[in-house]
Structure formats: structure tokens, C-alpha cells
Design a protein that fits this description.
GO terms for molecular function: 4-amino-4-deoxychorismate lyase activity. Belongs to the class-IV pyridoxal-phosphate-dependent aminotransferase family. With 303 residues, the protein is an alpha+beta fold. Helices cover 30% and strands 26% of the residues. The protein has 9 helices and 16 strands. A hairpin with a 2-residue loop joins β15 and β16. About 4% of the residues have low confidence.
């Protein structure tokens, strides 16, 4: 049985069975924080720089102090090393957690002088910052090999919402994931494995856990982050590698009909990596002649 790992941002390795959160931590009571999920493979966390860059962007969106990327990088290396020492070459799911801290003494990006009315000084407040490493769920290996059945589902907002309502935090990876989990349960009730969200205009957005990629020959297409979706780390690494290998990459709006007409459609993410959509809204998707070419490209992309 895999041994889970718990490491603070300062690099302290703690007993994973001992509680680390206070009862009033804003991560628990309001989902007021951010996270990242990294794959640990062969004793090394993958695509670390892109994850830390996104962590910093998410922190800025939530008015959290900028994460210390150097400290986080050291903690990530420690977590991956300790995981490998305990579990060998087994793949691990590493999750970085950064919350605003305790409700009784929250931390934010405002200077102390702007917070005098609270009676709290910056020194009295601290963010909650730690990472965990645990086993990758069996589902990941299954969907990598077998693909997924997907339905589209309306997300309920326009592609313009991110620009006019930044407080919706549409491009941030926040801890508030209840809606995404509900969407996945809804998909399961419909006999599907996953969801692709659509905007009120009918454009393709993203999956609760993945970025959508359409493939046409040697051309990769994904929706633009500006329409209110998370900028995918695996997608960014994939496009960079694809361009080196002679593929064309495009970022533009897609509709569900574009996916059905594509040579293949994939959901890419940090843990499942590349999962082919084998059915969309009840339509059986075509099987590309060499489906493993795309999976191999993703493997090269993450190093």
C-alpha cells in the first residue's frame, strides 16, 4: 500500500495522519485558496515551472501574497524525493495547497497599514501552505488506455464573463470545486465518464479536470483561456513540444460540432495526461489511425 507524504512549504516532512488545518482555516470553511496538481513519475515532479507560474497567477487573482516560488520548488523536490524513497517508481499525485489561512487571522496581499482597522498585524497572520503526495487513482491508467465517454453540459455563463466579472475567478485554480464535482456526478448518472462545459453561446470551454484538444492531421486546436477557462499546464507543455516536432498548434474557439468532425478529441491534464474522447453526446468518435502518437507526444512534453 502506498505511503502518503505531507510536506510544508518550508520543507518539513510531517506525519500525514496528523491534522494540519485549524478548524477555521479558510480552505475548509470557504474554499478560499488555490491549488495545483502535479504528476510525480520516476521520482520527479513534472512540469514544475508551469505549475508554479499558474499558482502565482491564481494567487494574484485572489489577492493572496505572491507565493515564494523558490520555496515551493524546494518543497516539491522534497516531496517527490520522499515519495520515491517510500514508494519506488510508483506514480504519485502531488497537490499543492495555498489558502488565506485562518478566518480569525487571514493573510492577503494588502500592506499592513491598509488593515489597521482589523486590529491584526501582518506578523499575526499566516497563509496555509503545504503539499501532499498520494497514489494516482486506478481510473487514470484505465482512461489513458480506454478513453472516455463524454457529454457536453452548459456552464451557464458567456465567454465574455471573465473580462467583465474578474471576481468570478474563472482563470484561477481555486479550492472551490463543488460545482465541478457535481458536474462529474451528473455525467456518471447519464452513463458518461466526463463532461465538456459549453458557454451560453454554445462554445466549447473545458472539462472539470482537463483541457480540450481537437486534432486534425498534424494540427492541434484548443479553446483560448480568455473565454473564461483555466490555462492548462499540460496543454502548454504539449503545444511547445508539438511545435518542436513539426505539428501546427492553434488557439481559437470551438463548438461541439467541431469536436464531432475532428479526427480525434482528447482531454489532457497533469495526472491522466492524454485521454481520448471515444463518445460525445452519444456519438461514437472516429478512431485515429495511430492514436498512440498523441499519447507519446504528451509523454515527451512532460519530460
Amino acid at each position: 500500500m502506498a505511503q502518503p507524504i505531507l510536506v510544508t512549504v518550508d520543507g518539513a516532512v510531517l506525519d500525514p495522519d496528523v491534522p494540519i488545518l485549524h478548524a477555521d482555516d479558510l480552505a475548509a470553511v470557504r474554499g478560499d485558496g488555490i491549488f495545483e496538481t502535479l504528476l510525480v513519475r520516476d521520482g520527479r515532479a513534472r512540469v514544475v515551472d508551469l505549475h508554479l507560474q499558474r499558482l502565482s497567477r491564481s494567487a494574484k487573482a485572489l489577492d493572496l501574497p505572491a507565493p515564494d516560488e523558490e520555496k515551493w520548488a524546494d518543497a516539491i523536490a522534497t516531496g517527490a524525493r520522499v515519495w520515491a524513497e517510500a514508494n519506488g517508481n510508483a506514480e504519485g499525485l502531488m497537490r499543492l495547497v495555498y489558502s488565506r489561512g485562518r478566518e480569525s487571522a487571514p493573510v492577503d496581499a494588502a500592506p499592513p497599514r491598509d488593515r489597521d482597522e482589523t486590529g491584526l498585524t501582518r506578523e499575526a497572520n499566516a497563509a496555509t501552505e503545504y503539499l501532499t503526495v498520494g497514489p494516482v487513482a486506478e481510473r487514470a491508467a484505465k482512461v489513458r488506455e480506454n478513453g472516455v465517454k463524454v457529454i457536453t453540459a452548459p456552464r451557464g455563463y458567456s465567454v465574455d464573463l471573465a473580462a467583465v466579472a474578474p471576481w468570478q475567478l474563472l482563470g484561477a485554480k481555486t479550492l472551490s470545486y463543488a460545482t465541478n464535482m457535481a458536474a462529474l456526478r451528473y455525467a456518471a448518472e447519464q452513463g458518461a465518464d466526463d463532461v465538456i462545459y459549453t458557454s451560453s453561446e454554445g462554445y466549447v470551454l473545458e472539462s472539470p479536470r482537463s483541457t480540450v484538444i481537437a486534432v486534425e492531421g498534424k494540427r492541434l486546436i484548443t479553446p483560448p483561456p480568455e473565454i473564461g477557462i483555466l490555462s492548462g499546464t499540460t496543454q502548454q507543455a504539449l503545444f511547445a513540444q508539438a511545435e518542436k516536432d513539426g505539428w501546427e498548434t492553434e488557439v481559437h474557439a470551438l463548438r461541439p460540432a467541431d469536436l464531432i468532425c475532428a479526427e480525434s478529441v482528447w482531454l489532457v491534464s497533469s495526472i491522466t495526461l492524454a485521454t481520448r474522447v471515444i463518445e460525445l453526446n452519444g456519438y461514437s468518435m472516429t478512431t485515429p489511425a495511430r492514436p498512440h502518437d498523441f499519447s507519446a507526444l504528451v509523454d515527451r512534453a512532460i519530460g
